Amino acid sequence: MAGKLYGVSVGPGDPELMTIKAKRQIESSDVIAYPAKSHGEDSTALNIVRKCTDISGKRTEEILFEMDPDPSVRESNYREAVSKIASLLDEGDVSMINLGDSTVFSTYMHVSLDISALGYETETIPGVTSFCNGASEAGIPLVIDNEGLAVVPMAMKNEHVYKALRDFDNIVVMKAFNSMRDLAAMMDELGIPRDSAVVVSNVGMADQYVGGFDPGRKYGYFTTVIIKKNGGMRA
Predict the structure, then answer these.
(1) Has residue 162 been placed in a domain?
(2) What pairs with residue 211 in β-bridges?
C-alpha cells in the first residue's frame, strides 16, 4: 500500500486563508481528489486551491457524493468513492480537499474511517471554518468569558437546533440557507430577538454577505447563522 490519504482543509473561500501546510501537502501529493454533488460540477474547493497553488500538471479526480433523497443511491456513491480512493492510494498519496475544516460536517471523515479500516494511513490537515471566518468578518466574538457554544446543522428534523437555541449562550447554525423561516419561528417561540443573529453567507467568496437576519431574503448555499443571546453584536 504505497499511498497515504490526506484530508486537506482549504478554508471557507478566501484562498489566503488556506494554510501553508495545506498548500505544501497538495503540492506534494500524487492526486488531488475533490468531492462533487454531480458529475462535472464546478468545485469550489478546487477553485480555491487553483488560486494559490499551481496544479496545472497535477492529476485531479472527482469523487461523487450525490445529494439524492434515495439512501440507496447515496450508499452506492459512498461505496464507489471508498473503492476509487483505495485504488488511487495504491498508486501514491492522495489529498482529498475539503471546504472549511475537514473535521466539521465533512464527508471526508466518513471516508477516512473506512480507508483506515482497509489498512491505509490517513492524516487530517486542519483549516479555518466558515463560522470562525464569519465571526471575524462580522467583528463579533463567538464566545467570551465563560459562555458556551453550540454548533449544529439545520436539518429536516430540527430538535438539535431547538435544544441548542434553548440551552446555549451562542449558537452557530450551519446549512441554514433554505431553512431561515423555520429558524426564525424557533427563535420567536423561545423569545430570542432576531437582531441577536448575524448571517454569514458564502463567506470569503465574491458574493459574500455578512449582515442582519432576514428570513425572507434569499441566501447562498454556504449560509451560516451566528446567534448571540447575550448580545455582543456589532452596532
Answers:
(1) yes
(2) 199
Other CB atoms within 10 Å distance of the CB of residue 201: 23
Residue 189's contacts (CB-CB under 8 Å, 6 or more residues apart) are none
Q: Which residue type does 37 have? A: K
3-state secondary structure labels for all residues of 16-75: HHCCHHHHHHHHHCCEEEEEECCCCCCCHHHHHHHHHCCCCCCEEEEEECCCCCCHHHHH
For residue 203, the one-letter residue type is V
13 Cβ neighbours under 8 A, 6+ residues apart: 44, 48, 99, 130, 133, 202, 203, 204, 205, 208, 222
Check: CB of residue 162 under 8 Å from CB of residue 185: no
- In angstroms and rounded to an integer, the radius of gyration of the C-alpha atoms of the chain is 19
- Count the domains in the chain: 2
Look at residues 87, 104, 125 and tell me which one is the last residue of a structural domain.
125
33, HSE (Cβ side, Cα atoms, 13 Å): 26
How does pLDDT run along the chain (235 residues), one tens digit per residue?
589 999 999 999 999 999 999 999 999 999 999 999 888 888 999 999 999 999 988 999 999 887 777 888 888 888 999 999 999 999 999 999 999 999 999 989 989 999 999 999 999 999 999 999 999 999 999 999 899 999 999 976 678 999 999 999 999 999 998 899 999 999 999 999 999 999 999 988 888 999 999 999 999 889 999 999 987 655 4
In a domain, 233, yes or no: no
